[in-house]
Amino acid sequence: MVIQKTSLVNIVIEKIKNYILENKLKPNDKFLTEKELTEQLKVSRTVVREALISLQAVGILKIKPGGGIYIADTKLGTINSILKHHYETHGVKIRELIEIRKIIELGALRLIIEKQVPLDIQQLREINESYLQAITTNGDTKKFDRIFHQSLIKATDNDTFYDFSEIIHQYFALVRIDLTENQESLIKSYKQHNEIVDAIKDNDLLHAQKTMNDHFEPIFTFIKKMEEES
Amino acid sequence: MVIQKTSLVNIVIEKIKNYILENKLKPNDKFLTEKELTEQLKVSRTVVREALISLQAVGILKIKPGGGIYIADTKLGTINSILKHHYETHGVKIRELIEIRKIIELGALRLIIEKQVPLDIQQLREINESYLQAITTNGDTKKFDRIFHQSLIKATDNDTFYDFSEIIHQYFALVRIDLTENQESLIKSYKQHNEIVDAIKDNDLLHAQKTMNDHFEPIFTFIKKMEEES
DNA sequence: AGTTATAATATTGTCAGACCAATTTTCAAT
DNA sequence: ATTGAAAATTGGTCTGACAATATTATAACT
């Protein structure tokens, strides 16, 4: 029987967490100072500081030197840094990430059409036209491509889904991949975008997903070639 | 112009991370001691300790009192604890998590069939038979249901996909949901499982996904009823 | 020689006090 | 009322000490 002896620091961490929950502290709220904590919890400043730093590391608190301690807005930042280290130590297969992104995009289409969420078709068109313009003027095509896909995910009316999608995207961004796209393939992408919007408008899930699937095809062939070379 | 002044602790954290990368340290490897770190980095023990505790918080190191410091096996643990706090403070809509789970399961079917991964059909059948037995003998039905679905995700030959699926599942487990299932509905689930396996065997993605979609239907109606009551 | 109990050592945990650096507050001068 | 310097507050780092835990070395025994 192993009895997990818990250190003072861990006790303090739990107490602080509970304190935040019980007092319903929101992001950017001011928290107690180190001095107040040492007095109220009757532990040394060392213990308090180690607990605070630990909570800052996981994105719960934000320590401002000289300015006090605040509730952090726990977003993706911390998770991303963890994933970054995980990627650097373990190494993650690019193919796996792309497969996941495909699943996410296909899933977004399903949610949009199945739930009949309100969708700003016109806005999607405009984004895609900006995409086209970027293509013809050697502009930032990746930017508008990303906005287009991001808009679809956002439209699913599922914030958690969007958060996870962003995490995957950030994770993917760690991998530098030089998929040199020529004008022709970019134009094709533009047309596929429009075709996807059409299919959504027609509530044609199968068509939308098929087109999205095709949309992903070039990158898969690229990955396959890359894997063969190495 | 904001100049991000970086503290000594943060510098040490980065140095330690790099040290781990450069020396290719693996989980459970013994790391340097506090003493060695203070000497090599020429900083106080306070700074070293705060850096170590920070790295332990994000699941990179594991500190054993009196026994030294080790490389932790960075898995889902830390991310889960972050999501747990996120859930407790923000509150996450159950519907969103279930939608994500559906997307994942449907995606798994697509990956399995599209990639034609080797799949132990027989094993899936056996798991489902255990599921049936649990149904008829008032056994642990949830256990075998989970194993069945887990097996499908695992079969996709995509470890990252599986990891994320597990994170979602853990996240979902935080929400206690009493979906009282009667014998009849459980039997239906059993049949659907088998139908999904059949469809996979026939490479019939549409059929597999349609059945999986139906499989999720009861929980969605349950959620909808719950939302209406509150 | 091999095993076991004990002592010595090494390592992390906690404490106290001091001083530095950054920020916020106070308050006098304008 | 505004500004700007001084004071107070707050977090950052350092040192040294002792406690609690784990590991290693030693001694005793079979």
From TrEMBL, chains A, B:
<dbReference type="InterPro" id="IPR036390">
    <property type="entry name" value="WH_DNA-bd_sf"/>
</dbReference>
<dbReference type="InterPro" id="IPR011711">
    <property type="entry name" value="GntR_C"/>
</dbReference>
<dbReference type="InterPro" id="IPR008920">
    <property type="entry name" value="TF_FadR/GntR_C"/>
</dbReference>
<dbReference type="Pfam" id="PF07729">
    <property type="entry name" value="FCD"/>
</dbReference>
<keyword id="KW-0238">DNA-binding</keyword>
<dbReference type="InterPro" id="IPR000524">
    <property type="entry name" value="Tscrpt_reg_HTH_GntR"/>
</dbReference>
<keyword id="KW-0805">Transcription regulation</keyword>
<dbReference type="GO" id="GO:0003677">
    <property type="term" value="F:DNA binding"/>
</dbReference>
<dbReference type="GO" id="GO:0003700">
    <property type="term" value="F:DNA-binding transcription factor activity"/>
</dbReference>
<dbReference type="InterPro" id="IPR036388">
    <property type="entry name" value="WH-like_DNA-bd_sf"/>
</dbReference>
<keyword id="KW-0804">Transcription</keyword>
<protein>
    <submittedName>
        <fullName>DNA-binding FadR family transcriptional regulator</fullName>
    </submittedName>
</protein>
<dbReference type="Pfam" id="PF00392">
    <property type="entry name" value="GntR"/>
</dbReference>
<feature type="domain" description="HTH gntR-type">
    <location>
        <begin position="6"/>
        <end position="74"/>
    </location>
</feature>
